[in-house]
Amino acid sequence: MRYLFYRVSWVAVGLCVGGLSSCVKWSREGGGDRLSEAPRRANVAGYLAPQVKRGKVAGIGFAAGAWEMPKGERLKLRAAATYLKVTGERVILAGSAKESSAEYARQLGQQRALAVQQALVAEGIPANRMATVSFGRDMPGGGGDEVQFGFVPTGEKAF
Amino acid sequence: MGVFIHWAGTAALLAQLAGAAVAWGADGGADGVVAVGVEEFLGSTGDSAEQLLRLDLDRSGTLRAREDGVGGGWRLRGSSSAGRIDGALLDAQGAMVFNNHYADADLRDNVHAFADDVVTAITQGRGLAASKLAFVGSREGRRQIYVADSDGERIQQVTSDAALKGSPSLGPGGVLMAYTSWQSGFGDVVLKDLRDGRERTILSAPGTNSGAAFSLDGTRLALTMSYQGNAEIYMASVSGSRVRRLTHARSVEFSPAWGPEGNRVVFCSDAGGGPQLYVVGRQGGAAERVETGYRHNTSPEWSADGVHLAFTGRQGGGPAVVVHDLASGQNRVLLARGEEPTWAPDGRHVAAVLDGALVVVDSVTGRRRTIVRGFSEIREPSWSR
User: Fold this and answer.
1) How far apart are the two ends of chain A, measured CA to CA in Å?
2) Most CB contacts within 10 A, which of A14, A135, A157, B239?
3) How far is the alpha carbon of B204 from chain A, nearest alpha carbon, in Å?
4) Is A131 helix (H, G, I), strand (E, B) or coil?
């Protein structure tokens, strides 16, 4: 009987400790930081994929350090919007920047790509036909301080 | 007879104390550097171990290996065979402080661990000998990530595919490394285990996911993501499965780095024009600007004691590595023309890029050493914590 009591006691202690540890874990993950599930990009062709058509429309140039859609580049933007409307293709907007900080260049290039995306949405192109990427200081093929267009032919994987 | 022994013992003790006092005065008093006598190491690899240990002690900035290995003060005694080490630290009275066995496969790892134990025992601070440095290096037109010992030795290329990559960050002990890879065609965060080389993509949200930085305890990452329509600072679990947005602004937020206590993140934002430094809590909320006086601030990192920020500052001319004292608001140029600073785990040394080489600067003495050269370009160094 005494043996049984000890066994039951140890099981109870184990349950308490187990419950406590899971409680602590829950409070760190759930109650403390309250992280939410990270989204994942669909598996799509990248800007450098062979089927992506680059250089068909001139890229949008930006002044050093700027990321707002430049008014002087509106004609190029409309040319890209017209191409997308006519062909029904999708587009990868590839941003770049010449900043000396590699990380600043990456995120400045990304912000520029997002600015061009918003401007294209305002021109009537649905956002789900566009994807953005930034190469920062390392734009393939050179260049920098611009957003280039990579058109994805219809029939390729959707974004 | 007993009295004689007693007086002889007292005289010996006094002589030892006097010797220690002299040693401190001669070798460590003025500049705060503590002299440590290193006795001759025994064993088949004893010479190599002793030589490297002396270098590690000198590089610590807080200790100095005594040439003769005798005299008062702290003493090290050891032996090394087949790369393994038995190492002991003795105090000024000859009492054993510790006597450890170091049995890693490589002599360098064992010596570095012994040196760091000595630094910790004497100064109560952390050493840097066993820490690792990651950086992006270009050779023959290919850019890859490399990891080196804190003294620049044993440089290993840890990535090999042709994809663009950048922003490496080493976790505690240099075991895990997060970096950004464009292997998918987009900027994704990859977590690599440097022990076995295995890696997996942990963050691949729409947009560019980059600048991941480990918290000091290695349980969290801070990074920039843009899947909600703007480049913002996020906190993520190391698995990458869960995230939390910390900033909300129309501007570009980038280069987050954790405070030592893990509840604050310093980052850059161009909300005010040129990029400035801000601090936000791990729960998010309003960010507080750090007034550095520089027009262009990038690559901030918090020192291990939380007292200083190091960053790349530009004021019209070229770059400089600047150390900012958070309490006084004072700046000190640590390395003119230097860029992209990263703190060592000892909170004293800073590695940075200077003229295409990787240099380490003692932030107390200003003493500088070039530890990695021979690449056509080096960028984005990250010191393990």
Assistant:
1) 67
2) A135
3) 5
4) strand
Question: Within this chain, do residues B163 and B289 fall inside the same structural domain, yes or no?
Answer: yes
Paired sense of beta strands B368-372 and B357-362, if any: antiparallel
Contact A39 B227 (CB under 8 A): yes
- Closest by Cβ to B242, choosing from A38, A92, A101: A38
For residues B256-271, give the mean pLDDT.
96
| H/E element, B15 | helix B2-23
pLDDT score at A158 = 53
pLDDT tens for each residue of B11-64: 333 333 333 333 333 344 457 899 999 999 999 999 999 999 999 999 999 999
Rounded CA separation B385/B382 (Å): 9
Which of the 8 DSSP states describes residue B174? G
Looking at the complex, does the CB of residue A128 fall below 8 Å from at least one CB of chain B? no
Is residue B312 located within the same domain as residue B191? yes
Residue B212 tokens, joined: 């991941």
| pLDDT 10s digits, B144-153 | 999 999 999 9
Looking at chain A from residue 15 to 34, which residues have their Cβ under 8 Å from any Cβ of chain B?
A: 29, 33-34
Q: A48 to chain B: which residues are within 8 Å by CB?
A: 185
Contact state of B226 with A100 under an 8 Å Cβ cutoff: no
ipTM for this prediction: 0.89
Mean pLDDT of B234-247: 93
Rounded-to-integer distance, Cα A158 and Cα B27, Å: 70
pLDDT band at A7 (very low <50, low <70, confident <90, very high): very low
CATH number attached to the domain at A53-152: 3.30.1330.60
Question: Structurally, how many domains does chain B consist of?
Answer: 2
The CATH number linked to B352 is 2.120.10.30
Q: Is A41 on the interface with B (CB under 8 A)?
A: yes
How far off is chain A from B201, nearest CA to CA, in Å? Answer: 10
